[in-house]
Amino acid sequence: MQPLVVETDWLGERILTFRDLIPHTPRALFVGLNPSPVSLAAGHYHQGRLGKRMWRRMEQSAVIPSPPAGTYHDEWLFRLGFGLTDLVKRPSPSARDLTSRDFAHGRARLLALLLEAHPPLICFVYKLAAEQALDKRLPPGAGLVSARIEGAQVFLMPGPYATSAEAARTLRALKALLRRRSRAR
After folding, report:
1. Number of domains, the chain
2. For residue 183, is pLDDT > 80?
3. For the chain, which has fewer Cβ within 10 Å, the N-terminal or C-terminal residue?
C-alpha cells in the first residue's frame, strides 16, 4: 500500500496529512475530526490513545475482524471495503486548535468527496466532526442520526469516553446496519 502521509495545501499552507483512503465502491466512509501528531508520526490513521480505543472496541464488537499480524487497522478497513478520511486535514494536538475556517473548508471538501465516492453510510468517529459536517448540534448519544449527507445515512460512533456498555450497544447497532446493507447489495 502507498504511504498514507502526503503533503498537500490546506487554506494556503503546505501541510503533512493523511491521504483519503477511498475504495472504488465504499461500504461506508469513516470520518475523523483531524489527524493527530501522534498518528501522523506513526503514519496511520487513529494511532493515538483514543484512536486505538476505537479500533479495539470495533474488534471487540466484531464490527471488523482483527487485522492480520503486521497490518494496521486503517489498511485492514480499506481492504474490507471501507473508506477513511478526516473532516479537517490540518493536524493538531487538540480540537481547540481548529478554526471556523478549517471547519468550513473541511465541510466543503467532504461534500465534494461524497459526491465523488457515493458511500451509502458515513460513520463519524467524533461528534464534533459530525456536527461541523452537518452544520448543526446533535442530541446526546451515538448511533444512527436522523440526517443524510449527499444521500448517505449518518452514523455517530461512540465517543472515546463512552462507557463500555454504551460503546458495545452502539457498535452492535453499527454491525447490524452494515450486515443489512451487505445483504441488500
Report:
1. 1
2. no
3. C
Would you list the DSSP string of the chain?
A: ---SEEEEEETTEEEEEEPPB--SS-SEEEEES---HHHHHHTSSS-SHHHHHHHHHHHHTTSSPPPPTT--HHHHHHHTTEEEEES--S--SSGGG--HHHHHHHHHHHHHHHHHH--SEEEESSHHHHHHHHTS---SS-EEEEEEETTEEEEEPPPTTS-HHHHHHHHHHHHHHHHHHHHH-
**Position 19 in a domain:** no
pLDDT digits (tens, 9 = 90+) for 147-170: 999 999 999 999 999 999 999 999
Report if residue 14 sits inside a domain.
no
pTM of this structure = 0.96
* Coil vs helix vs strand at 3: coil
Q: Flag whether 8 is in a domain.
A: no
